[in-house]
Design a protein that fits this description.
By secondary structure, this protein is mainly α. It has one domain. Helix content is about 75%, strand content about 0%. It has 22 helices and no strands. The two termini are about 30 Å apart.
């Protein structure tokens, strides 16, 4: 059996196994192991070829970017489990209590701060749903607006630095994390600004959808005291996140060092507020450990899969598929984004990052696509996919924590305006690379249809 036929069968088998509902990480490893044995038996590569997986695993655990993931996740879990995130929401709501939609502004602010460091859309949406949705419902907010705001704020985990998603994209596309953080700043700021503008517009014309809360009814304190409380409850967590982001972006600290700074500051803040109990610390460590373990298993399984797939020259199969597209960078970017948009209906971000990106990254480099531009586009694209009814993962997560009085159709309709905003940002970033890149290269359309991809040889492994 030819190598190309085996690589195609390998992809088809993975799709069948995933549709059958088996865990993704173990499905990747099982399919890779089975086809690896077939490859050895058919003489396509020797047994020593598979031992290169040992070097790949060693590289994962020594990678500084990946080492930052457990630290940042732990930091987010501390802020969430100790109630600091809830205090921040109440403080911001207190600040905007007299404004229609004030709680919605607070939720978007909380999502922009907490969601990126939690790093997982499912975790951030569920946390915001549990914290903010009861408050918004009690305040008389429209259910569609409430659920839409929470889902949009939770999916900010995809794009707002120091997002763990951007860390994974930097690792998979082999680009500088600092460059990706800088490239994502303006698109994420535009996205949050448009969210706020939408809430402002809705509450301006229909204030009954998000009624203001009178200061006397909601909080019995003076206005100066309100500012002090907001500064303590909301400013300190925001300051911690900004310090982490600034230390990494300006090269003061590596990603793992920045994560360590954030964890230390979060622990000190929780200790100062007398929230750092043994129970809260244990819960934060358990959740962070489970989430990070799932990422590690996914990464190992995907790395094994791509190793065997490359042994069958599977990258050439992917290359041949792209040769049927119209020539040019723009057609490549549109096709890749449409494909990822469809895959994200059924797969989580980490599954797409570890399975799909290694297949398309070499082609993107050959076509001349800037990897930072591609990374930011994919982050926004996946955020859009997770909000798309009826397949959006974020909507399923919100449904799981929403009370029965809120219908699923209301959650879907609430997400549509924010989904359109995300599509607008995605279109802007595709058409205007300058939004991401400081010195964007010209987008060409004269790339030859027939091209070849040359990958560096795998390191030789010797068994002594």
């Amino acid at each position: 059996m030819s190598a190309e036929l085996l690589s195609s069968a390998m992809l088809a088998s993975l799709v069948v196994v995933l549709l059958a509902g088996f865990p993704v990480a173990f499905s990747l490893a099982a399919v890779a192991g089975a086809f690896g044995m077939l490859g050895i038996a058919a003489g396509h590569f020797p047994l020593l070829f598979l031992t290169a997986m040992l070097l790949r695993v060693q590289g994962m655990f020594s990678n500084d970017n990946l080492l930052a993931i457990p630290l940042l996740v732990f930091m987010g879990m501390i802020l969430e489990r100790t109630g600091i995130a809830e205090d921040m929401l109440l403080a911001l709501s207190r600040l905007f209590s007299r404004v229609p939609g004030g709680i919605a502004y607070a939720v978007l602010g909380l999502g922009a701060v907490i969601s990126p460091i939690v790093g997982f859309v499912s975790a951030s949406v569920m946390a915001l749903g549990l914290i903010a949705l009861p408050v918004m419902i009690r305040a008389g907010y429209d259910q569609r607006l409430s659920t839409g705001v929470i889902a949009a704020a939770g999916t900010l985990a995809q794009i707002v630095p120091p997002s763990l998603v951007l860390i994974v994209l930097a690792e998979q596309l082999e680009v500088s994390l600092v460059d990706i953080y800088r490239g994502a700043l303006l698109p994420s700021a535009l996205l949050v600004a448009l969210y706020i503008a939408y809430v402002f517009s809705v509450t301006w014309f229909w204030p009954h959808l998000a009624p203001p809360i009178s200061m006397a009814k909601a909080f019995a304190s003076s206005r100066p005291q309100t500012w002090i409380d907001v500064a303590l409850a909301g400013g300190l967590p925001i300051g911690i996140v900004l310090c982490v982001l600034g230390s990494i972006s300006f090269g003061v600290a590596t990603p793992s060092e920045g994560g360590a700074i954030g964890v230390t500051a979060s622990l000190l803040l929780a200790l100062t507020k007398r929230r750092l109990t043994i129970l809260n610390l244990r819960k934060a460590m358990e959740v962070a450990g489970v989430l990070c373990s799932s990422v590690i298993f996914l990464l190992i399984g995907a790395s094994f899969f791509t190793l065997v797939f490359r042994g069958f020259n599977g990258h050439l199969v992917i290359e041949h598929l792209f040769q049927y597209l119209p020539a040019g960078q723009m057609s490549f970017m549109v096709t890749v984004n449409l494909a990822v948009l469809g895959l994200a209906f059924f797969l989580d971000f980490f599954e797409i990052a570890f399975i799909v990106l290694p297949l398309i990254a070499p082609i993107a480099q050959k076509v001349g696509i800037d990897m930072v531009w591609l990374a930011v586009l994919l982050a926004i694209n996946l955020q859009t996919s997770f909000m798309h009814p009826p397949f959006g993962i974020a909507l399923y997560n919100l449904r799981s924590v929403a009370p029965p009085s809120i219908k699923t159709l209301q959650i879907y309709w609430g997400a549509v305006p924010f989904l359109l905003i995300q599509v607008l940002i995605l279109t802007i970033v595709i058409l205007l690379p300058a939004v991401v890149l400081k010195n964007p290269p010209p987008v060409t359309t004269d790339i030859p249809v027939n091209f070849e991809i040359e990958l560096p040889p795998l390191p030789e492994v010797r068994i002594q």
